[in-house]
């Protein structure tokens, strides 16, 4: 790849994460240059696919065009991803970025297609009856991203990949808790239907103010459910290079703090979007550095029993664009 194109791809990816995820953008600066480039490239592709399916721009809820067909868009994403893996020339910056990192870092096609299947779950308006169902969705949209990111950082051991997947699950549980009301306003709900029934909240009324007290309890339950996954994630950073461990520990701390804030605010959690201040991010960055250093000294602990288990790596996977969750390779135990 020549230098001007190379620089343009990096600029595109950097701008994408800066606008699309301020929380992760801060942590990404801690990676060594080569790892940071690959991480940004992968993020740009993930963000692009999400936006294309939703008809948005960098995660912002612009109204999709009347001609927007999410099933057709998803099918195109599958096809472009196949072409990227086949080594064909990519004109779209997001797919050129993805091709560079996927082929350069040896990211398994199954992971990329597993991620696209998560967008299919949104397209097909899949319902989530249990927390295990919600975690299956979390795997597709975030857990598998953790697996791809870990591979970029050189992780190959299945136990380390389990910890990386757990961090993605924790991130997404936090995102769901923070965005419950915004998601409900566009007709989406990732909360377990069982939990909503227990709280006395009809799914069609999630966004209504009269349910905020009950909804805050459901959100707190979701935040609490993320905790063992956050705990598992920190146990995996010792296998990463030091700067990568620092970046991941920092991202973990920042996202976990968002969940803590959601829980602390109670019914007011959705009056404005919960985030973390620059001062808090700085403190969490320092904490992440300490955790990364301590991980050099601490023996890795086994993954806690009872956590949702990602699909076995030896299960064959065949992507099905029109289907949210193919029968093989997507269920947890």
How many structural domains does the protein architecture include?
Answer: 1
Fourth-level CATH superfamily: Farnesyl Diphosphate Synthase
Assembly form of the protein: single chain
- Summarize the amount of helix as a percent range: 55-70%
Which band does the percent of strand residues land in? under 5%
Low-confidence stretches: 1-5, 314-333
Distance between the termini: 43 Å
Q: What is the 3D form? A: globular
Structural class: mainly alpha
Order of helices and strands: HHHHHHHHHHHHH
Give me the number of helical elements: 13
Architecture, according to CATH?
Answer: Orthogonal Bundle
Cα radius of gyration in angstroms: 19 Å
Sketch the major β-sheet: none
Find the count of extended strands (DSSP E, 2+ residues): 0
Average pLDDT figure: 87
Structure description:
- Helix content is 64%, strand content 0%.
- With 333 residues, the protein is mainly alpha-helical.
- The chain has a single domain, classed as Orthogonal Bundle (Farnesyl Diphosphate Synthase), CATH 1.10.600.10.
- It is globular.
